[in-house]
Amino acid sequence: xxxxxxxxxxxxxxxxxxxxxxxxxxxxxxxxxxxxxxxxxxxxxxxxxxxxxxxxxxxxxxxxxxxxxxxxxxxxxxxxxxxxxxxxxxxxxxxxxxxxxxxxxxxxxxxxxxxxxxxxxxxxxxxxxxxxxxxxxxxxxxxxxxxxxxxxxxxxxxxxxxxxxxxxxxxxxx
Length: 174
Prior knowledge:
CATH architecture of the domain at 19-137: Orthogonal Bundle
Helix content: 55-70%
Largest sheet: 2 strands, antiparallel
Number of strands: 2
Structural class: mainly alpha
Strand order of the largest sheet: 1-2
Number of helices: 7
CATH topology of the domain at 19-137: Arc Repressor Mutant, subunit A
Oligomer: single chain
Order of helices and strands: HHHHEEHHH
CATH class of the domain at 19-137: Mainly Alpha
Strand content: 5-15%
């Protein structure tokens, strides 16, 4: 966990609202949120690993995905993905079917129980998050919401151009 205001932290050297200080605060908050998220998911029935949940979410958003595409999405190897799908299929969460146009390819899709588990996990996570948000003042919740929207917009925005960096690129093009 990232600790703020610990020994060696010098507020005079690093303003508390500077990008680095705020990044550390966000890292702490994300770690706390990840714990909340994980515990809520582990209380679902049946209990699934985070990789299994990620696989189900990927298949929910992209039905008919093949094993290679799922492995790429999860950033794990195809053999690991195949074993993951074997377990999910044995649990009745997903099914494999031949691709209608390519007989060497297998499509993966969620079953009704797989969709139910995702709904249950999403509900548990929302409830856990709502419990934490209820403790906050309305103005704090509104500020958090605005901040998260701004963070998402900044993350999706093109990187700002740096002076000097463009000049070197222009010189190389000449």
